[in-house]
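Hi all, long-time lurker, first post. I run a small reading group and we've been trying to get comfortable going from sequence to structure in the token notation. Rather than ask abstract questions, I figured I'd post a concrete chain and ask someone more experienced to write out its structure so we can walk through it together at our next meeting. Sequence below, copied exactly:
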Amino acid sequence: MEDQWNDQSRQWLRSVRKLVFLPASPDVGTLSTLTRSLVDIATSNSPATVASVVISYPALPGLYAEDISDVGHHLSLPLLKGNHVYPPRSIVSAYAGYGMGLCTSYNDEAQCRKEGLILPVRPTLFIEYTSTAVLLHLASMREAYDLADPDVYTYPDFFRPGDPSTPDSENRLRQLRVCIIMLLHRCYTIMDPPKLITVLLTGESATSAAAEAVDRAVKSAGFQIELFGPTYPEFTIARGASELAWRAFSLNWSEQMET
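-- Answer (accepted) --
Happy to help. Here is the structure in token form:
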């Protein structure tokens, strides 16, 4: 309660900025510029406008669900919520992209939640491996559903600009392994460690060599591994976000038809 009270002035300033059609914060302004460019690309070859969106975003320090929601507000993009009240982070979209955490009754919100409660809980390590960074996010997953909890186990590691190393070079793969082991040890010195970890490997650099490095790192940290990837790993997050968007759109349409 005290934290909410102390946050009132910041929230008031965000509201005032939105009332005069400004981005809620400088971060929202930067994200809006990026998102607008993506919307322009999506609509450049189509006469249709963007009726609604689901924005998926990485779990980076200082990037919050309210920023993503305010990007949609600033650009007048209706955000689809459906059964995911908050915009889904990349780990949630990738989880859905690999077909996990999804109910069959997505047109019935209450029934979908009931189905979700009996899904298996998976200790899940999300890895986005690109030419510029390694982004890790560790969480216990059941449904493809984001709670927007800011207290998460993440490990972002960015490569030096101009680094000539290729994604499959031993230097890069060693860095990938070190990041994974450090995050697993940091998390499971606090919590009881599981036997098996589900790994979602994504990103344009997620090659078979990267998959072998991930497998080696998780096992050397003392865990069994269930690895998803690297078949079309660069599209996994987008595929999952599209699935969540379709389900949210179907739910909204069903509710409108009932009323």
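A couple of things your group might point at:
The two ends are 37 Å apart (CA to CA).
The beta strands are 122-129, 133-141, 153-158, 196-202, 224-228.
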